[in-house]
Amino acid sequence: MHRITPFLLVAFASFTSAVPSPRSTHVLHERRAMEPVEWAKISRLEADSILPMRIGLAQQNLHLVEEMLTAVSHPESPKYGQHYSAAEIVDTFKPSEETVQAVTNWLVNAGISRDRLQLSLNKGWIHVNASTAEAEDLLKTEYHVYMHPSGAKQIGCHNYSVPAHVQRHVDLIKPTVHFNHQAGDDFARRKLDTEPLTDIVSGPIVAGDASDASIPANLVNCDKQITLACLRALYKIDYTPVSTHVNTFGIVELTPQAFLPGDLDLFFKNFVPSLIGVRPTPVLIDGAVVQNTSQSFNSNGESSLDLEYGMGLTAPQPIILLQTGDLVEGGRFDNWLDAVDGSFCTFEGGDVPGEDGIYPDSIGSPQSCGIIKPPNVISTSYSQDEATATLAYAVRQCTEYAKLGMLGTTVIYSSGDNGVGGRNNVCLDVHDNEDPTNGTTFNPRFPAACPFLTAVGATQVNPGSTVDDPEGACEQVIFSGGGFSNIFAMPSYQALAVNDYVNAHLTPSPYPVGTYNTSGSRAFPDIAANGANYVIGVDGTLSLVFGTSASAPVVASVITLINDARIAIGKGPVGFINPVLYSPIFAPAFNDIVTGGNQGCGTPGFNATPGWDPVTGVGTPNFPRLLDLFKSLP
C-alpha cells in the first residue's frame, strides 16, 4: 500500500480552534472567506423570512478517505475496480450518535421543537426551516440581502457562532457565509470576437493551404478551427460505443445556461448528421428548466459547447443532462450532487451537501434527492476561486467527490481559464488572502484544487502547425488554469511527479515568498486536452470559443469510451482515475506537452515541461494506448 498523505494542510487546524464570542457560551465557527466583489449589501433580511437551515454534522473516519479511495483506484492495488456500495460508504462515514444527539439537543433547548428537525438518510445533515429571527438567535449573527448589478440577489451573514460544546460536532451550517461570488458564468469573454462562421455542410469552414496532400481536407485548419475530426486526429480516437444501454455519461449545466435545440442541429448538420434531432436526456434538478427565453452567447454558449462535443465524440452514447437550478435562484456548480445519489441527501425528500441556492425561492421549486444513479462519468465546466470557499465548505464538498469516486464515478472539472489568476484575472493579496485590485498572489480554482477529482487543463494546436505536430499549452484568448492549492495537501498519487517538477523547475522558486503555496499542497491540473478555437453552433450561428470548459468534456468523452470498452469485456467503469494518470506504467499513454505557459498575476506563471507540470498535467490522451492499458486492468 502506498503511503497515505494527510488529507488537509496544517492550516485546517485553525478552523476548529474555539474563539470565544462576546455573547453567551458561543464561539466563532465560520466567517466568510472573502467579501463578495460587485455585490452590494442592501438591507437586513426580514425577521419572518423562512430559511432552509442545513447543519452539516461532523463525519466519522475521514482519515480513511484517501486510503479507501486509493484501494479501489490505484492500478497496483489488489482491490482495483472493486468499488464500494452506497450503503458501505454511508456506514463508514456517518456521524456518531453522540454528534447527532449533541446538535439535536442544542436546537431543542434553543426552542425549536423536535418534530421540526429532519435527519438525513446518512445522518450527515439536520434540516430545519427556521425564521430569520430564529436563525440569528441560534447563530448570534445578522442576515443581509445582497444585490448584484445584474439584479441577482443572495442572502448571507458575515460570520456565525455556535455553542462551544457543540462546535466539534458541526462541520458547517447553511445558509450562512457560503456566498456565490459570481452572478453568472464568465463565458462570453472566451468567444472570439469575429464575424459568425459560414454555415457549411461539408469540408472545412475556412479554406486552408491544402498543398500537403497527406493532410485530409477536414484537418487542414485545425490550428484555426477545432472540430470533432481535429480532436479525433489529435488523440487518435477511433472507437464506436457498443455498451450504450449500460454505460452512462452526465454533463452538468447551471440554469440559466441552457442549450437551444436548433443550435445542436446546426452543429450536427455540419459534423455529425446522424445526430440531427437527437437530444440529451434531461434530469431537472431543484426546479431546473432548459430555458430558451434568454438567448445569447452567455446564456447558451457553455451548454452548446459541452453537449455538442460530448455527444459528438461518444455517439451513439446517450448523454444525461444534469440541468441544475431554477430561474429564480439559478444554479450552483455542485448542485448536481443533489440528484446523483440519495445517500448524500440532506434530508429525506430534500437536498444534499453542496452550494445550494440560498435566496428564498418565491416559486417554491421542488428539491431533488437521489433521482438518478451517479453516471459513470460526470463533466462539469464551472468553478470558483478557491479563496472564496470557506475551509469547511471546501473540505466537505471535496469529501463528497471522493465518495463518488469510491462508488465508481469519474468526476471531471475544468481547471480555469486565467492561468495562475482567478476569475476575471483577479489575484490575491499576500497578506490577508483578500481579492484586491492589485493582488499579486496566485489564485487557484476550486473544485479543481480538490485532490479527489480530475482537473483538466487546456492545450492548443500551435499557429501554423498541424494535428501531427506536438501541441502547446493554450496561450490564445485563455491560459490553462493550474498551480497549487491553498487548502488541500498533496495526495500520495501525485507526490513523485509533482516533487520532480518542483525540484527541477521551482527550486529555488522564481517568485517571491508567498506568491504561491510551497508547503507541499495539491497541484493541478491532472491532464489536458485542446481548448482553443472550438467551432460550436450557438444562437443560430457557428462561432469560435476557447477554454478549459472545452477540454473537460473532451477528456470526459475519452473516459466514457474507455468505460464502454471495459463494460463490453465484462469489466466495470474506471471510477477515480488520478492514481492511474500518475502511474509510470501509464506514462506512454499521454502526449507530453513541453511548450507554453499559464501566465497571470503579472507573472509568466508556470511552464509546460517534460513530465507533469501545473499547466497541462501529465499531458493529453493517446486514446489507443490509454484504452489498451485500462482494458488490461481488472
Molecular shape: globular
Judged by helices, strands and strand pairing, the structural class is alpha/beta
- Can you tell me the CATH superfamily? Peptidase S8/S53 domain
CATH class: Alpha Beta
% residues in beta strands: 15-25%
Organism: Hypholoma sublateritium (strain FD-334 SS-4)
Keywords: Calcium, Glycoprotein, Hydrolase, Metal-binding, Protease, Secreted, Serine protease, Signal, Virulence, Zymogen
Subcellular location: Secreted, Extracellular space
Signal peptide: 1-18
In short:
With 634 residues, the chain is of the alpha/beta class. It is 22% helix and 18% strand.
Structural commentary:
This protein has 634 residues and is α/β, with parallel strands linked by helices. The chain has one domain (188-632): Peptidase S8/S53 domain (Rossmann fold). The protein is built from 13 helices and 26 strands. Strands 11, 12, 13, 14, 16, 18, 19 and 22 form an eight-stranded mixed sheet that branches. Helix 1 (65-73) packs parallel to helix 9, helix 6 crosses helix 7 (297-314) and helix 11 packs across helix 13 (623-632). It is globular. The chain starts with 18 loop residues before the first strand and ends with a helix. This is tripeptidyl-peptidase II. Ca(2+) binds at residues 592-593, 611, 613. Its main location: secreted. Keywords: Calcium, Glycoprotein, Hydrolase, Metal-binding, Protease, Secreted, Serine protease, Signal, Virulence, Zymogen.
Write the layout of secondary structure elements.
Blueprint (H helix, E strand, L loop, with lengths): L18 E2 L5 E6 L8 E5 L5 E8 L7 H9 L12 H8 L3 H13 L8 E2 L5 E7 H8 L4 E4 L5 E4 L2 E5 L6 E5 L53 H8 L13 E6 L6 H11 L9 E5 L11 H18 L5 E5 L12 H4 L36 E4 L3 E2 L5 H17 L2 E5 L30 E2 L7 E7 L11 E2 L9 E7 L5 H11 L15 E4 L2 E4 L3 E5 L2 E5 L2 H21 L9 H4 L8 E2 L28 E2 L1 H10 L2
Parallel strand pairs: 11-13, 11-14, 12-13, 14-16, 16-18, 18-22
Antiparallel strand pairs: 1-2, 2-9, 3-7, 4-6, 4-10, 5-6, 7-8, 15-17, 18-19, 20-21, 23-24, 25-26
Helix pairs in contact: 1-9, 6-7, 7-11, 11-13
